[in-house]
Amino acid sequence: MQIILNIIKEAYFLLNQMSVYLVFGFLFAGILHVFIQEKIIANHLGKNNFLSVIKASLFGIPLPLCSCGVIPAALSLRKSGASRGAVLSFLISTPTTGIDSIFATYALLGGVFTVYRVVASFVIAVFAGVLANLFLKKEEPSFNSSDNEHKCKLCHNNEHLLVKHNVLNKIKGVFTYAFGDLLGDVSKWLLIGILIGGMISSIIPETLVVRYLGSGWQSIFIMLLVGIPMYVCSSGSLPIVAALILKGMNPGAAFVFLLAGPATNSVALTVIASQFGKKTVFIFLSSIIGCGLGLGFLLNYLWGFLNIDITQLIVHHSTIIPSWMRMITSIFLLLGILLNIIKNKKNKQAIPVRG
Q1: Which single residue of 37, 196, 281, 293 has CA 20 to 30 Å from 262?
Q2: Which residues contact 154 (CB under 8 A, 6 or more apart)?
Q3: Are 45 and 86 in contact (CB under 8 A)?
């Protein structure tokens, strides 16, 4: 019983550190969803050139989509005429960042780590996109955009250009997407990540983490091997990393896990192979592994050069936000997560089984 209580206590501590920033991140994501049309983005990504890769990488950074959630969006971009290089860049920059994850990274790991994570994800996405444009022949999509791409995001009317929504409807749409659809998509994985983080803080001996993940090249390789097949969203991976850092894991290993975990998993790799080909998967994985390892080692070097204590950053950020605000947002997020899990379970049960 004492072990369970310790896990809950540590999990709640991690949630408290992230909650305020996650709420702001989800809210900003809702604004992006309601007010920015996907077709506008797709129109900038169709050319097989360096600029389209840059644009795709930049467009993907604030979008809060996980490694599976980004697949439909990438397919939509491809159907709209985006080049393979642009789509591949989008597939890397989107799940590894996201506005909610950026806020949460700052909450737990500080500004230096946050900026490095975003810039590194952008660099890897551009690198992969350029490789795709060089080695993969451009193929025009043989299918047209689906009707869903032309529907209004609020009322799902095909004649969305003629539909005018008032300000209240748009605000409602922002909150419905942010704390309904989006939070529902990541709620299970966010809760799992927080609980795993609590278990790591409570159960795993600090000497074990220091021995294998504290320093050296093996720590980065271990976290890369763990992260590639694992399915975890960019926000859900943060409490796991924070718990390991507090136990003694180095920043480079943390970065590699935050890169590989959200960007890849067995399901996403299978879908990418079937829709874009095995060569695309090879470039996708090679870019993440090669650049991830190099940037992980570079981060450890910079961290030592700057003489930053990352564990102190985590403790320091826990005092920035007033405790009452962290408590309110934590309760709000927990209720939202539980309600969405219940809602998703009911929806699955309501689907008729065909004989």
Answers
A1: 37
A2: 34, 163, 165, 169, 170, 173
A3: yes
